[in-house]
Amino acid sequence: VSRPRRLIAGNWKMNGTGEALREIEAMAAAAGDLACDLVLCPPSTLVERAARLVRGTSLRIGAQDCHAQPAGAFTGDISAEMLVEAGASHVIVGHSERRMAYAEASALVAAKTRAAYRAGLVAIICVGETEAERDAGRALGVVAEQLAGSLPDDATAQNTAIAYEPVWAIGTGRVPAEEQIAEIHAAMRQGLLARFSTAGAEMRLLYGGSVKAGNAASIFAVPHVDGALVGGASLKAEDFLGIARAA
Ligand code: PEP
């Protein structure tokens, strides 16, 4: 199959106040000249202003999490419908920081993904093993299990992208060997093909974990890597665009 445009998504995590909007403005100004799709996920407090800022450009705004329910007594949470109203088009679900710090299991990630679909958001579903799991020879098994449990049956290449993010590579500057990324991405593709056939062939598989402008091109050269999910290097427009230009 011919490969879709690469998707480069930025995750600001709990970083960024109003003054950081100028970085988003600079990203938006350059997004139209890129060969890839570009999405930036600021903290929820900035989603509405960021979405207004990028209107008319090809930069899209996403959120970093959503609740599974559309509304209700869930203090502190935000629904997928609210994110859509604020101007988001994408949402990250199942990030390892949430799987670990908030004990989010794959069944909950699947429920949040269904909420994203219900509201019309594209879900960027994160999976990835810890270092202990890799050392125990369980990386492939953990990723396959998270993938199977986190994806609803109605996932398509349009409403879903998968991000493989080995936990030990996030924010550490440690990037897996190309063969390690290739092995996991090929296995994910096999699993998605078996379950979703054509949709599984076309679904974009991102790599995430210490991606920088300097290592992006070699990561994008790995088979079945259709983009990146970027944390630290998405905070500054110059760094983020450097990655996007390698895609
Ligand atoms: C992330 O948290 O999704 C991530 C990939 O972070 P970093 O790029 O900073 O490793």
UniProtKB/TrEMBL annotation:
Its main location: cytoplasm. GO terms for biological process: gluconeogenesis; glyceraldehyde-3-phosphate biosynthetic process; glycerol catabolic process; glycolytic process. It catalyses: D-glyceraldehyde 3-phosphate = dihydroxyacetone phosphate; L-erythrulose 1-phosphate = D-erythrulose 4-phosphate. Pathway: Carbohydrate degradation; glycolysis; D-glyceraldehyde 3-phosphate from glycerone phosphate: step 1/1; Carbohydrate biosynthesis; gluconeogenesis; Carbohydrate metabolism; erythritol degradation. GO terms for cellular component: cytosol. Homodimer. This is Triosephosphate isomerase. The gene is tpiA.
